[in-house]
Amino acid sequence: MTNLETRPVPELCDAHARLGPVIERYDEREVPLGGLRAMPVRRTLPHRDLPLVGAWCFLDEFGPDHHDMRVLPHPHTGLQTVTWPVVGEIRHRDSLASDLVVRPGQLNLMTAGRGVSHSEFSLGDAPLLHGVQLWVALPDGVADAGAAFQQVTDLPVLEVPGARATVVVGGLDGLASAAVVHTPLLALDVTVDPGADVALPLDPTFEHAVLVLDGAARVAGVEHAPHALLYLGDGRAELGVASAGGARLLVLGGTPFDHDLVMWWNFVGRTHTDIAAARANWESPDAAERFGLVDGHGGARIPAPPLPDVTLRPRRRRHPPR
């Protein structure tokens, strides 16, 4: 998936001191996505006060609604894209010759490295779609390496009384996803039964955040409903979740990321120069040398917006050190 903002805000995401457990709510903002910009998505990462959760640096939720996803070929650098559909089917094509459909319960994971391009189109006529698209920032040694693609169709599920947690990325209580990531990370899709009150084990060295996908729940003692992101800090050995009517949640976690990152449009780099070079390469007649070609679109693609006429400046987490 792409960031189609015509004036994307530059982000420099810095490493940060341990916070300990906190409770912070970050409201979503609506942005348009794809085709004629008819499909709205709700973005909660990056936020001006919360650029990262572990290495998770971007989070869009789309639906549930009837929409056509029509995202033409576009580039990425320095990140992994994570596509997790809740409802609906999405066809992924990329410059690595991948061409397949991802369905609910399946994970698509594309590693951009130095450069890759891809497209994503929903199947059907204005189908019911609901899902999330996330980006993972890549560390040194991988951020400028080769591209890769992986689809994982058999994900482990932790079952506890009153809840089930699909391990999408990372590991939980001895279960591990086959998804290949490059920093310690966690993504769980958790279904909580009506009337249940459960405690999920967490790694206290991770920082965590929770997005409610459906229903409403009491998370870490706080009432939480869909669309906003609840940031929990680090230092938690378990996560308490209760729901009167049942709920579905996305739990994200990871060790605080220790690289400075500049994010602009669909690129992640270390400096303004990295971003400017990636944009210039995508707009060049020789774009395929870095980003490859995505078959099946007759040469159509999404052009890069203009860079701001200034050096991209840092935007850092506003938490004071503790």
From TrEMBL:
Domain Pirin N-terminal span(s) in chain numbering: 41-136
Composition bias, Basic residues: 313-322
Pfam family, one: Pirin_C
Alphabetical list of InterPro entries matching this protein: Pirin, Pirin_C_dom, Pirin_N_dom, RmlC-like_jellyroll, RmlC_Cupin_sf
Region spans: Disordered: 298-322
Chain ranges of the Pirin C-terminal domain: 188-284
UniProt cross-references to SUPFAM superfamilies, sorted A to Z: RmlC-like cupins (SSF51182)
Xref: PANTHER family: PIRIN, PIRIN-RELATED
Record family assignment: Belongs to the pirin family.
Designated name of the protein: Pirin family protein
